[in-house]
Amino acid sequence: MKVPLRWLADYVPITLPVEELAHRLSMAGAEVESIDRTGDWGDLVRVGLVTGVEPHPAADRLRLATVDYGGDAPQTVVCGAPNVAAGQKIAFALEGASLHDAHSGTTRKLKRSKIRGVVSAGMVCSELELGLSDEHEGILVLDNAAIVGTPLSEVLGETVLDITPTPNRPDHFSVLGIAREVAALTGQAVREPEIEYAQEGPPITEATSVEIADPDVCGRYIATIIRGIRVGPSPEWLQRRLAAAGQRPINNVVDVTNFVMLEMGQPLHAFDYDRLDEGRIVVRRPRPGEAITLLDGSDHQLGADHLLIADATTGRALAGVMGGADSEVAPDTTSVLLEAASFAPDNTRRTAAALKQRTEASLRFEKGLNPELAALASARAMRLLLDTGGGIADNGVADAYPAKRPPARVQLTSQRLERIAGVAMPTETVRSILSGLGLPTRWKPPGTYVVETPPWRTDIALPDDVVEEVCRIYGYDNLPSRGLTGVLPEPSLDRPRRVRESIRDALAAAGCSEVITYAATSAAALDAVPAGPGDAPTGDDALPLLNPMSSQHARMRTSLRPGVLASYAANARGGARAAGRLQIFEAGKVFL
């Protein structure tokens, strides 16, 4: 998960040096793999203002741009970009600046040159030349608020934390999730994003409905509609946020869904409403022989265990994975139906693996998302869609929520916290930590913390989960070290295990080496060894694995002999036999 610091600072003040922030996040469980910096152009690339554009006297496709860059006098440079125009704020590189060369793919220093008879001692830059993206068809046009003469690194330079979330923390797959960690670690308050939006259109019930045919794999589905929206390029700030996080900007509608997914951790999908038959949504299993073409152009024959988002007649998206090509938002789209849903982790994981379509959306659904998060993300996206594309939102939401659950509450006594942590923490310290993490907490005398788990924290269900939250923010290195106390009971083994251990000890004493081989093998390996008493008749009769690592590990072993003999052969080839040391055995489980 790439977390740009400028984006992070939208929600929490960054008061620590980046190296210390990365260390403290890692110590608290959000491991920072690397700190990546972009836009270190120094003082030789600045914000410039194009004050005039004239034709090149000797080339029809070139023009002369006069640029005020905050220096002693404006510079006139040769520019071939078709979109350069007077009044633009641009990125202006001075002689000596290091820029990306699109032809060689290397970095070069900008030199004064004569182009078709005109001396040019600077350059109006594209995103490619700055190393920001692959875009090179035109120059980079900056926000009009940029101040002329400011080093571009102060405007576009970015520091990005590359964080590896743990599987039990889906909230760490969002910038807001990391912001809450920073808030708790530094004692700051989180600024929550604005989610209120105007609903001035007709009642949504007149336009759509939602039906969930299989509630076991879709816990909630929310649909909202915007009419009269304009589809086009996103504002610069939105494109910059996505690019810094490793996402390619597409258009304002798709960009908003990706932005909210990265911001809040909830995947979303936008349909062209006018392409939906009867305008309604049905979440169902595929019919026999049903297929779908996804947004990436891939065709897939679907099975009975997959899940479709369909309209009245046709499957329009593969639930939790990717949208369909025939309902995607296009430049001429004017009405959008926005999906925010909760899909079962195991079903999403199997579908993505079977169709080889592991996406940013499926990655998050596989971790398990609280259905309540869908409502927050839907409202946030609707606000941003109205801000970036205009239009009018229908009044209300179409919300199918078959098994609504009340917010979970966990009670933790101060005595249990002290016993596990080994230190008595002040009540206000504990409440401050939990509040910083976004966990509403109240104190119930004489000594109990009542913690309400928010929609983004599906991993907190037990008192010890709350203890872990307090201890990791308090700092494990701040907890006292104490020796173990009490009496350890003497271990006892049942008779079969005692016999097995005695045999292992005897074989080891006789000079044999114990080997441990994979319990998974292949049918061919089992058939290569004569069957013994109790073995399956053939390798094909052995227990198959539904999702094996490889064809060589597709069956569970019915005998230890194939693995032992394979280990014997491998060691013999390595010379162990010649040295007189090749005596091996294995004690393990077989599957009959």
Query: What is the strand arrangement across the widest sheet?
Result: 5-4-3-6-11
How many distinct helices?
A: 16
Total domains: 5
Question: What's the end-to-end separation, in Å?
Answer: 43 Å
CATH arch. level architecture of the largest domain: 3-Layer(bba) Sandwich
Question: Could you tell me the strand content as a percent range?
Answer: 15-25%
The structure class reads alpha+beta
Radius of gyration: 31 Å
Low-confidence stretches: none
Quick overview of this protein structure:
With 592 residues, this protein is of the alpha+beta class. The chain has a 5-stranded antiparallel sheet with strand order 5-4-3-6-11. A 5-stranded mixed sheet has the order 13-16-19-20-21, with no helix packed on it. Strands 14, 15, 22, 23 and 24 form a 5-stranded antiparallel sheet that branches. Helix 5 (175-186) packs antiparallel against helix 12.
Keywords:
592 residues; alpha+beta; Phenylalanyl-tRNA Synthetase, Chain B, domain 1; OB fold (Dihydrolipoamide Acetyltransferase, E2P); Phenylalanyl-tRNA Synthetase, Chain B, domain 3; five-stranded antiparallel beta sheet; globular
Structure characterization notes:
It is built from 16 helices and 31 strands. By secondary structure, it is of the alpha+beta class. The strands form 10 sheets. It has a 5-stranded antiparallel beta sheet. Strand 7 (98-100) and strand 8 (107-109) form a beta hairpin. Helix 7 runs antiparallel to helix 10. The relative contact order is 0.09.
Question: Which secondary structure elements does this structure contain, and how are they paired or packed?
Answer:
Layout: E1 2-4, H1 5-8, H2 18-27, E2 31-38, E3 45-56, E4 59-68, E5 75-79, E6 89-94, E7 98-100, E8 107-109, E9 113-115, E10 118-120, E11 122-124, H3 127-130, H4 152-156, E12 158-164, H5 175-186, E13 210-212, E14 218-227, H6 236-244, H7 252-264, E15 268-272, E16 281-284, E17 291-293, E18 299-301, E19 308-310, E20 315-318, E21 322-323, E22 335-343, H8 345-354, H9 360-367, H10 371-389, E23 392-393, E24 398-400, E25 409-413, H11 414-421, H12 427-436, E26 441-444, E27 448-452, H13 463-474, H14 495-509, E28 513-514, E29 520-521, H15 523-527, E30 555-556, H16 561-573, E31 584-585
Parallel strand pairs: 13-16, 28-31
Antiparallel strand pairs: 1-12, 2-12, 3-4, 3-6, 4-5, 6-11, 7-8, 9-10, 14-22, 14-23, 14-24, 15-22, 16-19, 17-18, 19-20, 20-21, 25-27, 26-27, 29-30
Helix pairs in contact: 5-12, 6-7, 7-10, 8-9
